[in-house]
Amino acid sequence: ILLVDDDPNQRRTVAIGLRLDGFHVVEAIDGVDALAKLETCSPVAVVSDIKMPRMDGLELLDVLQFRSPDLPCVLMSGCVMLTDQLAERGTPSFAVLPKSAGFARLSELLQHLLEDGDSRIQSA
Fold first, then answer.
1. Cβ-based neighbours of 90, under 8 Å, separated by 6 or more
2. Cα–Cα distance, 103 to 100 (Å, whole number)
3. At what angle do helices 103-116 and 8-20 cross, to 10 degrees?
4. Handedness of CA 54, 56, 58, 64 (dihedral sign)
5. pLDDT at position 26, please?
6. What are 54-68's pLDDT values in tens digits?
7. Distant-in-sequence, close-in-space partners of 53: CB < 8 Å, separation ≥ 6
8. Three-state DSSP class for 51?
9. Residue closest to 84 by CA, chosen among 121, 115, 53, 34
10. Where would I find the beta strands (DSSP E) of the chain?
11. Which 3-state string (H, E, C) describes 66-96?
């Protein structure tokens, strides 16, 4: 899993949880860092915050959808209104999850996306 979040505490917390669930996690601090990490790793999925400096999660998603359209992506935000707006957009290659949904929901969503190869948009 490539985990992208500019908040070190949030990133560390999610990374620990994902590792406890058996995922190998590579961490990036923003979209620019994530693209650099993609040069040396091949993640099975990307989990990214939306609001970040330099390159935000939506910009990163656009690049990923062009480069690797089958790579499951989960965008997370503390702004529930933003996640609702993205879910309504209907883009078929990513999932949207409010950070308030919690780690258990993220882990469940990742398992589902990876097991089924299903990257239809979802919202919690």
1. 121
2. 9
3. 60
4. positive
5. 97
6. 998 889 988 988 888
7. 6, 30
8. coil
9. 121
10. 2-4, 26-28, 46-49, 73-77, 94-98
11. HHCCCCCEEEEECCHHHHHHHHHHCCCCEEE
